[in-house]
C-alpha cells in the first residue's frame, strides 16, 4: 500500500508538473491550482504534454527567439489577413487585370446555320442520263449541306485554328440548331460564355448559292431570327474587359445597331482595339442611304478596318468610281518611261480616301481577294501582291471562307505583333502570311473545314 501510494504521489506530482508546463506554454498563470480530481488519466496527460511540447519546441526553433508562442500564433493570421486585404484594395484601386497570351479577341455578331449547295457524284460514271441533268446544278442546286457560318462565327474559329484565342458574343435560338452551333465552337476552342439562347426565336438560317458574276456564294437569309434580338443588357462585360481586340461587321448593325455601338463603347473603355470588317450584305439593307449612314457611324469608331475594293467603291462617291474606271494602268503604256509612272492596278490615293479617313484609324486594309492587299497607316502606305483567286468548280472549292480567313490572320498578327503598326517592312512580311491563309481556305467546300492552321500557313509562306 505504501509503495502504491508513493507511486500514486509521484505520478500525480509528475502530472501536475506537466500540467503547469503546458499552462506556461499556453500563457496561462501558474498560480492557478489544478485539482487532483481532474487528473484521472496520468498516461493520457503525458501524451498530451509530449504533443504540445513538441509543437512548442518546433515553433521556438523555427522562430529563433524566446518570444511568447501564443502571441506569435495570433500575429501570423493577422498579418496574412492584412496582406490579403491590401492586395484586394490595390486591385480595386488600380483596376488591374491579368491578361492571357495570346491576347483574347471578342468576335461580336450573328451565328448562322448556312446551307451550301452540293452535287453528289454518281456511282455510274458513264450514265449519260444522269450527267445530262447536272448542267447548271451549281447555280440552282437541288440539295444543300448544312454548315455553321456567319462572319464573326467564322473569324472566331479561323483565329483559334491559327493559334489565337477568341470569344464569341451573340445570340442563337433555344433549339437543336443553336446548341449545335455552340457545340461546334466548343470543339474549336472558342469561348462561348457570351452566347445567349433565345426561347422565342429560331437560329438564323441562310441558303448559299453561287452567282455567275464573280463565282462567290450569294446569301438568302431567313428573317426574323435570334440574332436580331440581342440587346444591350445581354452584353458580357467580362469578355470585353479581357479582350484586347473587338471584331464586328455590318451584319451586327442591321437590327440592333445600338447594342453593337454600346459594346464598342465598353470595349474602348477597357482599352480594346476596334476591328471593323464591313462585309456588306447589300440585299439585306433597306436603302442605300441608310446603309452608308449606319456603316459610317461604326466606321468612325474603328481603329483597324478591312474593306474589299467593291465595298470601298460603295462607300465613296461617284466621282471616285469614274476615276477608277477610266484609269489606264501599266499595260496601256506606249513605252518604258511611261510605264514607270503607272501601277499594274489602281491604288486608291489618300486624297480619295479622305472622306472616310479619321484620326482614330491605325491601319486600313483594302483587299482584292488573295490577289492584292493595299494598306494605309498615318505614316506610310503600300500594297502586297499575292496570287489570283482559284477558279470555282462544282466539287473542288469555294471562296466564301477566304475573306474570313484573311481577317482572322490579320487579327492574329496585329494582336501578337503590335510593332507592325509602325514597321512597314515587317507589316508586308506578315501580310504575305495573311494571303497564304486566304489561299488555303479556298480549296475546301464549306468554310470551317478549309480554315488553315498556323503551321500550314507558315509553310506555304516559306515556299
TrEMBL record:
One of its GO terms (cellular component) is chloroplast nucleoid. Keywords: Kinase, Transferase. It comes from the Eukaryota. It holds the Pfam family PfkB. Residues 127-449 form the Carbohydrate kinase PfkB domain. Coiled coil: none annotated. Residues 43-53 have a biased composition (Basic residues). GO terms for biological process: chloroplast organization; plastid transcription. Residues 86-95 have a biased composition (Acidic residues). Signal peptide: none annotated. One of its GO terms (molecular function) is kinase activity. Residues 1-95 are annotated as: Disordered. Belongs to the carbohydrate kinase PfkB family. This is Carbohydrate kinase PfkB domain-containing protein.
Amino acid at each position: 500500500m505504501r509503495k502504491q501510494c508513493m507511486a500514486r504521489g509521484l505520478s500525480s506530482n509528475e502530472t501536475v508538473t506537466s500540467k503547469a508546463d503546458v499552462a506556461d506554454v499556453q500563457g496561462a498563470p501558474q498560480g492557478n491550482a489544478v485539482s487532483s480530481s481532474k487528473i484521472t488519466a496520468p498516461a493520457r496527460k503525458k501524451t498530451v504534454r509530449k504533443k504540445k511540447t513538441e509543437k512548442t519546441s518546433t515553433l521556438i526553433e523555427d522562430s529563433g527567439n524566446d518570444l511568447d508562442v501564443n502571441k506569435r500564433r495570433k500575429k501570423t493570421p493577422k498579418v496574412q489577413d492584412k496582406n490579403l486585404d491590401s492586395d484586394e484594395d490595390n486591385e480595386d484601386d488600380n483596376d488591374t487585370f491579368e491578361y492571357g497570351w495570346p491576347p483574347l479577341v471578342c468576335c461580336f455578331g450573328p451565328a448562322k446555320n448556312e446551307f451550301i449547295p452540293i452535287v453528289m457524284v454518281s456511282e455510274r460514271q458513264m450514265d449519260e442520263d444522269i450527267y445530262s441533268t447536272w448542267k447548271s446544278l451549281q447555280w440552282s442546286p437541288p440539295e444543300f449541306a448544312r454548315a455553321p457560318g456567319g462572319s464573326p462565327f467564322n473569324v472566331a474559329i479561323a483565329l483559334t485554328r491559327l493559334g489565337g484565342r477568341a470569344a464569341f458574343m451573340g445570340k442563337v435560338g433555344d433549339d437543336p440548331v443553336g446548341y449545335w452551333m455552340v457545340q461546334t465552337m466548343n470543339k474549336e476552342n472558342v469561348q462561348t460564355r457570351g452566347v445567349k439562347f433565345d426561347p422565342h426565336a429560331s437560329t438564323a438560317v441562310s441558303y448559299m448559292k453561287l452567282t455567275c458574276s464573280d463565282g462567290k456564294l450569294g446569301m438568302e437569309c431567313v428573317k426574323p431570327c435570334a440574332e436580331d434580338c440581342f440587346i444591350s443588357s445581354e452584353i458580357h462585360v467580362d469578355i470585353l474587359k479581357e479582350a484586347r481586340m473587338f471584331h464586328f461587321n455590318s451584319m451586327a448593325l442591321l437590327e440592333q445597331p445600338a447594342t453593337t455601338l454600346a459594346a464598342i463603347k465598353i470595349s474602348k473603355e477597357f482599352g480594346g482595339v476596334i476591328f471593323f470588317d464591313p462585309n456588306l450584305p447589300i440585299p439585306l439593307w433597306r436603302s442605300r442611304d441608310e446603309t452608308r449612314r449606319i456603316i459610317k457611324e461604326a466606321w468612325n469608331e474603328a481603329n483597324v478596318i478591312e474593306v474589299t475594293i467593291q465595298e470601298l467603291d460603295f462607300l465613296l462617291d461617284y466621282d471616285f468610281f469614274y476615276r477608277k474606271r477610266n484609269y489606264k494602268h501599266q499595260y496601256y503604256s506606249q513605252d518604258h518611261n511611261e510605264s514607270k509612272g503607272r501601277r499594274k492596278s489602281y491604288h486608291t490615293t489618300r486624297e480619295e480616301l479622305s472622306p472616310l479617313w479619321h484620326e482614330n484609324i491605325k491601319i486600313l486594309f483594302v483587299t482584292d481577294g488573295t490577289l492584292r492587299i493595299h494598306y494605309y497607316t498615318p505614316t506610310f502606305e503600300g500594297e502586297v501582291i499575292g496570287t489570283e483567286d482559284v477558279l470555282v468548280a462544282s466539287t473542288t472549292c469555294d471562296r466564301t471562307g477566304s475573306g474570313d480567313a484573311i481577317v482572322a490572320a490579320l487579327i492574329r498578327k496585329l494582336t501578337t505583333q503590335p510593332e507592325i503598326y509602325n514597321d512597314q517592312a515587317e507589316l508586308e512580311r506578315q501580310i504575305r502570311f495573311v494571303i497564304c491563309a486566304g489561299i488555303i481556305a479556298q480549296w475546301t467546300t464549306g468554310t470551317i473545314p478549309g480554315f488553315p492552321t498556323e503551321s500550314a500557313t507558315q509553310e506555304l509562306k516559306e515556299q
